[in-house]
């Protein structure tokens, strides 16, 4: 395991140097990532390095050790904090206990004592890391649980209790591949009343499932699981015409099961679908197909489409779900996905209309939903600002390929306008923040929290957007703006340095000098002298 990192904080640099030299950090399992001489600088370094341990003095300029500890405990709760100070005061110790400080060490501290403290801290860190990082045990537990998790997912899927927005997460987390592009449910029913002698019903069922997995699993990329006393297979097909071949193979499997293990097996085959969210209907059809064994006989495969085609006819009309899927793709996915979504919508929903009247209704519904999408997303497109009857009549005259091209173009146009709108929104967002800084930089209370409160957004979202658009953090931008204004005041006015500090939002002139020097490399007074001469 890599060494734990330590940040040392004390305004007396000689103290830090002594500690760094006298302690065998490597031998203790630690490495010093740096040191700071004040709480403000220390907090910046904590944000940058996120050390495992911070060892800090209490009395320091700009921000004392207790305030620093409070910030660290709030934002980095796993960081261990050690206080070492020359002040043996009850109030300090009381506050340290309140902040759950690991150790309160009084100066002067000797090397042996400090090494013992860090040895104890390392034991605690090791225990915590061991619990959190034991990936091997967690991975093994997860892999052992996968079959059960997958079976539960498949059961929930055919029950229709999986929502569209959950599918990708389940497939990823459970390492399931559904390449399709077509799917179908099989229900394998082993008769409990016709069992070979000396055969347990449960063992027979398990044997049938194993044989089914071996004979059908690989070729049809089948997902097998037990459900309500039957074996269910979710098979995958390259095209819809493969259903005939699958039916024949299932029929041969029934004969094989009877010949090899003496099981009387009936396989019900449901309708073919293109989306795994349609599998509940396929499962219902497969289960119903099994019930036809009383008419067609056992030890055979029964395809619901062949025996009851009227029960699975499709209306061909589109619905809200189909259109919402298309609009979701337009909002979130790249151009190739939008083209696929349009093609899928037209091929399997739109062009399946059985009559001219259904086609006219589908056109009306499509125009209505596209118009609503424009209104809801503040999209302005010429076609939808003119007479809707004119658009409706023009679409009725389009041939299928022309209609397909029109809808693809509209979808891509919507996508581009949404991207443009998002970009304008974030830029306007940042512009408002910059303008607020220009008008309020002299307010010493101006901070990340206050600007977010003004804009009505969270800190994390604002920080992400601001950094993405400007390349700088908001605090960095505010500091640069304030010091830039201060530099102009130093050259253009005769005001005292502490007055200028207050004018740009710093109540502590010493901290202003510290920040100014960090930005320009020289103190405010020297900056004024050098630039006045120039």
TrEMBL record:
Domain HTH araC/xylS-type, by residue range, is 431-530
Domain of life, per lineage: Bacteria
- Localization in the cell: Cytoplasm
Q: Which residues form the Response regulatory domain?
A: 5-122
Q: Which SMART domains match?
A: HTH_ARAC, REC
> Native species of this protein?
Diplocloster modestus
Gene3D superfamilies reported for this sequence: 3.40.50.2300, Homeodomain-like
Q: Which CDD domains match?
A: REC_YesN-like
Q: What broad class describes the main subcellular location of this protein?
A: cytoplasm
Upper lineage: Bacteria, Bacillati, Bacillota, Clostridia, Lachnospirales
PROSITE patterns reported in the protein's UniProt record: HTH_ARAC_FAMILY_2 (PS01124), RESPONSE_REGULATORY (PS50110)
**Its job:** May play the central regulatory role in sporulation. It may be an element of the effector pathway responsible for the activation of sporulation genes in response to nutritional stress. Spo0A may act in concert with spo0H (a sigma factor) to control the expression of some genes that are critical to the sporulation process.
- The name under which this protein is listed is Stage 0 sporulation protein A homolog
Q: Which UniProt keywords apply?
A: Cytoplasm, DNA-binding, Phosphoprotein, Transcription, Transcription regulation, Two-component regulatory system
